[in-house]
Amino acid sequence: MPLSTSAERNSFAQDLFTPLPARYDRLAEILSFGQNGRWRRAMVDQIGPAPGNVVLDVASGTAGVAIQLADRTAARVVGVDLTEQMLRRGKMNVAATGQAGRISLIAGRAEQLPLPDASVDALTFTYLLRYVDEPRATLAELARVVRPGGRVASLEFCVPPSPFWRAAWWLYTRLLLPAGGLLTGGREWFVVGSFLGPNISAHYRKYPVTWTEQAWHDAGFTDVGVKLMSLGGGLVMWGTRSGG
């Protein structure tokens, strides 16, 4: 069933991810053939080692990216996510790394961030735009909270451009991914595995990579870069908040 409003999409995302936190990180690595961690590192590479005082991580989930940002920069990190259960697991993960003094996790919506204008020095967001009603408006909201000259980077799933690898990706996401989710994570991960492939395909039919790149420019980012990862299964994008 199409999700036509922001509230519907937010509710769907909460329902989808609420049962998953306890095994999210391990299963994400298994079901992505170990690529999720490499993609995250490529995204954080675009932020650099000295982004400023505060980095915001949107759709922070279980805080995997937030922890990496704290490990690789001198900044304080604020993670925002819609799902309380994911944030609770994220706080446990943060505490286990000894980074609780530098990482704060708060509940919030990417479409309406609970932060003032130009209040962060850099920003990351991961697997976000498929779950919002208006990607262009969400990008503008993300840009709002970044100071001029601040770096922004994102990670998303993508659809391989090569016909051969696209066919292999289609078979994996429609058959192996749901089956693997069921075997390694139970019914909840079967639901996620069954959802991801069709959702990713539908998103890029409506919002191709070229559209998304232009939306970054329209939101107020310059020097926008795009890198396909793992034959096109992942997409890292980055840019600089204009005005710096």
Can you put this structure into words, describing what you see?
The model has no long low-confidence stretch (mean pLDDT 88). The protein is built from nine helices and seven strands, in the order H-H-H-E-H-E-H-E-E-H-E-H-H-H-E-E. It is α/β, with parallel strands linked by helices and 244 residues long. It is 48% helix and 21% strand. It has one domain: Vaccinia Virus protein VP39 (Rossmann fold), CATH 3.40.50. Helix 5 links the parallel strand 2 and strand 3.
Describe the secondary structure blueprint for this structure.
Elements: H1 6-17, H2 24-31, H3 35-45, E1 54-58, H4 64-72, E2 76-81, H5 84-97, E3 103-107, E4 120-126, H6 135-144, E5 146-157, H7 163-185, H8 187-206, H9 209-219, E6 221-229, E7 234-241
Parallel strand pairs: 1-2, 1-4, 2-3, 4-5
Antiparallel strand pairs: 5-7, 6-7
